[in-house]
Amino acid sequence: MNTTLASRRPIPSRWLALLAAAWLMLPVAAAKAQTPGAASQPTRPAGNAVNGRDLYLKYSCYACHGYSGQNGPGTRLVPARMSAPAFTAYVRNPRQMPPYTAKVVPDAELGDIWAYLQTLPRSPSPRDIPLLTQILDEK
Question: Comparing C-alpha atoms, which of 68, 114, 64, 67 is closest to residue 88?
Answer without folding.
Answer: 114
